[in-house]
Amino acid sequence: MRDREVDIKYRALSALKPSSNATRVHSKKQLAKLKKSLQQVGFIAPVVIDGNDQIIAGHARLAAAKTLGY
């Protein structure tokens, strides 16, 4: 296994691009739970992006955050 360097950077939510490979569909109930969690504890798991700001993981967290006006 190759060691990879992790780089943490903050981006505006509006700068993040959804992946065309994202296949999961999140129900309104799931998004409501995520919104409640974000309000209570904030982001614990980050939205993971590639070098072009395209989302690799975290599409639902991003959707929930946007509805909260983050």
Commentary on this structure:
- This protein has 70 residues and is mainly alpha-helical.
- It is 33% helix and 7% strand.
- The protein contains 2 helices and 2 strands, in the order αββα.
- The protein has a two-stranded antiparallel sheet.
- Helix 1 crosses helix 2 (59-67).
- The longest helix has 14 residues, at 28-41.
- The chain is globular and about 40 Å long.
- It starts with 27 loop residues before the first helix and ends with a helix.
- The model has no long low-confidence stretch (mean pLDDT 86).
Termini Cα gap: 37 Å
Biggest sheet features: 2 strands, antiparallel
What structural class results from the helix and strand content? mainly alpha
Mean pLDDT figure: 86
Unreliable spans are none
Topology:
Blueprint lengths: L27 H14 L6 E2 L5 E3 L1 H9 L3
Antiparallel strand pairs: 1-2
Helix pairs in contact: 1-2
Which characteristics define this entry?
two-stranded antiparallel ribbon; globular; mainly alpha; 70 residues; 7% strand
What is this entry, summarized?
With 70 residues, this protein is mainly alpha-helical. It contains two helices and two strands.
